[in-house]
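hey can u check if this looks right to u? its 156 residues, i copy pasted from the old doc so theres a chance i mangled smth
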Amino acid sequence: MIVGEAPGRQEDVQGRPFVGAAGRVLADLLAEAGLRREEVFITNVVKSHPTDRKGGSNRAPRRDEVAACLPWLQQQLALIRPRLVVALGTHALQAFLSGKKISRVHGRPFQHNGLTVLPLYHPAVALYGVRKEILQRDMRKVRQVLAVVRERRSRV
C-alpha cells in the first residue's frame, strides 16, 4: 500500500491518486523496483486537493486537514491489511510518526500499530531538483522490506 500526501489538480479531476507528473515518476520508480502500479493500492492521507485561497494553486495540507482525513485512512488500512505501507512524503509520514522529518527517516522501516511503514520521499521531489538516485535507492528498499515482512508473516 502506498500512501501519498494529498491529491493534486489532475488527481482531483480524474478521481485517482498519482496521475499527474509525480504519478509518472512513481510509475517509473515502481517499475525500476520490479513492481507494477496494478499490484499496489495507492491512496492519500488527505482526500481533497488543498489549494491556496488566492489563485487555487497547490499547497501543503494543513494539520487540521490531515487530522480530519485520518479516520478514512485508518479504515482503508483496516480493510486492506497491507503487508507494507510506503509513506510518501512528510505529510504521509506524519500520519504514522508525528514529529519526524522525512529527511532523517526516509528508507528506514518502522512499526506502527502492527504495520510495517517505510517512509520515502514523495516522487514530486524529483520534479524539483532532488536527485532521482535517492528516490531509486529508496524504492529498491520496498522490495527488500516486503520480502522480510512476507517471511515474518509466513512464520506466524
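The CA atoms of residues 9 and 55 lie 13 Å apart.
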